[in-house]
């Protein structure tokens, strides 16, 4: 598994789409809950769909929490997988992985902006990272979520949905994308390509 990509089997509904996206890029990727395979992988992706508490429960049941916390290679959390990287989430009032400081909160209810936020929205950049190479401010990506991380010094890109929220984050080897790159056409494929080149 060394030099390959490991996708953590978190039970999310987006896993098959993510595997296909990696296949289209010609990147070997293995779905696993094996701690040894995760530690040996060159890159690790933590996908997630559904509730944060359920996803954390699956990681705990699989005995992966400390393994994920100890990974040194590039790690990418996607959607709920990104939210799990933070200290905690309002969704189910759950303690998360604590790799990024902050608390994930529910998007505010507004008459003209239904929650969940579903559909295509634009990225605006807050910082520079090779994860966003060949992606431009204003490019559209696909979101499906009801909770989001606040904008902070870790935020590399934001999206506006009533208020701005963190769309791409980074701290050290840990990266997160609130949108679904596996469903975001060319821009999503570029982000995944950039990730495996880190």
From TrEMBL:
Catalytic activity line of the entry: L-glutamine + H2O = L-glutamate + NH4(+); 5-[(5-phospho-1-deoxy-D-ribulos-1-ylimino)methylamino]-1-(5-phospho-beta-D-ribosyl)imidazole-4-carboxamide + L-glutamine = D-erythro-1-(imidazol-4-yl)glycerol 3-phosphate + 5-amino-1-(5-phospho-beta-D-ribosyl)imidazole-4-carboxamide + L-glutamate + H(+)
Keywords, comma-separated and alphabetical: Amino-acid biosynthesis, Cytoplasm, Glutamine amidotransferase, Glycosyltransferase, Histidine biosynthesis, Hydrolase, Lyase, Transferase
Recorded metabolic or biological pathway in which this protein acts: Amino-acid biosynthesis; L-histidine biosynthesis; L-histidine from 5-phospho-alpha-D-ribose 1-diphosphate: step 5/9
A cellular component annotation (GO) from this entry: cytoplasm
Active site: 79, 180, 182
Domain Glutamine amidotransferase, chain residue ranges per copy: 7-196
Enzyme Commission code: 4.3.2.10, 3.5.1.2
Subcellular location: Cytoplasm
Gene Ontology biological process: L-histidine biosynthetic process
Gene3D superfamilies xref list: 3.40.50.880
GO molecular function, one term: lyase activity
One Pfam family cited in the UniProt record for this chain: GATase
Broad class of the protein's primary localization: cytoplasm
Subunit note: Heterodimer of HisH and HisF.
Purpose: IGPS catalyzes the conversion of PRFAR and glutamine to IGP, AICAR and glutamate. The HisH subunit catalyzes the hydrolysis of glutamine to glutamate and ammonia as part of the synthesis of IGP and AICAR. The resulting ammonia molecule is channeled to the active site of HisF.
Protein name: Imidazole glycerol phosphate synthase subunit HisH
């Amino acid at each position: 598994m060394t030099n390959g990509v490991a996708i953590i089997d978190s039970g999310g509904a987006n896993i098959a789409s993510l595997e296909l996206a990696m296949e289209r890029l010609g990147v070997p990727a293995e779905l696993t809950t094996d701690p040894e395979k995760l530690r040996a992988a060159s890159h690790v992706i933590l996908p997630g769909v559904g509730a944060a508490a359920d996803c954390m429960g699956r990681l705990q049941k699989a005995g992966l929490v400390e393994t994920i916390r100890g990974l040194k290679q590039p790690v990418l959390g996607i959607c709920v997988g990104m939210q799990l990287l933070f200290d905690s989430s309002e969704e189910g009032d759950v303690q998360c992985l604590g790799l990024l400081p902050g608390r994930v909160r529910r998007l505010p209810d507004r008459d003209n902006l239904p929650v969940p936020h579903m559909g295509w929205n634009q990225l605006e950049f807050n910082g520079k990272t090779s994860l966003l190479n060949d992606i431009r401010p204003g490019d559209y990506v696909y979101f499906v979520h009801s909770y989001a991380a606040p904008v902070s010094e870790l935020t590399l890109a934001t999206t506006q949905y009533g208020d701005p929220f963190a769309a791409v984050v980074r701290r050290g080897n840990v990266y997160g994308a609130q949108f679904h790159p596996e469903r975001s056409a060319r821009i999503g494929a570029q982000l995944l390509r950039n990730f495996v080149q880190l």
